[in-house]
Write a structure and sequence with these properties.
CATH architecture: Roll
Protein name: CBS domain-containing protein
Oligomer: single chain
Number of strands: 7
InterPro entries: CBS_dom, CBS_dom_sf, Diverse_CBS-Domain
CATH topology: CBS-domain
Strand order of the largest sheet: 5-6-7
Pfam family, one: CBS
Helix content: 25-40%
Structural class: alpha+beta
Keywords: CBS domain
Radius of gyration: 17 Å
Strand content: 15-25%
Number of helices: 6
Largest sheet: 3 strands, mixed
Length: 140
């Protein structure tokens, strides 16, 4: 049975939650990616940010600071990221990841080991495994 560890990309572009949204947008465009995992300084996965979050999140989220009652400007990843993140463990079966992606309409899953980011599996990674005809992929 094929598992996340078998497919995951280990070199993953990440951002931190205090990164400016304009910097994230530049990074996504520069790297030709549509999203990135958000990690803390120790490498623990804390969220996921996508182009949709960057483009539309700051427009749709309330800019109201409820504690003070003042409007706040939404400028950082933490203001619009998806948290807690949807993720897989290194030993999650590929079939389960594919099912989760389909059900939730997402195209990538961060992979964690004991809470720390260890890789990323995209829907394209799963398709490639199936197309290459590996015996394990046929079970997907």
């Amino acid at each position: 049975m094929m598992i996340a560890r078998d497919l995951m990309q280990v070199e993953v572009i990440t951002v931190q939650d205090d990164t400016a949204l304009e910097d994230v947008l530049d990074l996504l465009m520069q790297e030709h990616i549509s999203g990135a995992p958000v990690v803390d300084r120790e490498g623990f996965l804390v969220g996921v940010i996508s182009q949709v979050d960057v483009f539309f999140g700051s427009r749709t989220r309330s800019g109201l600071n409820e504690r003070v009652g003042e409007r706040t400007e939404i400028t950082r990843v933490k203001d619009v990221m998806t948290s807690p993140p949807i993720c897989a463990n290194e030993d999650t079966p590929v079939h389960d990841m594919a099912e989760m992606m389909c059900k939730l309409h997402i195209h990538r899953l961060p992979v964690v080991k004991r809470g720390r980011l260890s890789g990323m599996v995209s829907s394209i990674d799963i398709c490639r495994a199936m197309c290459h005809g590996s015996p394990q992929a046929e079970a997907v």
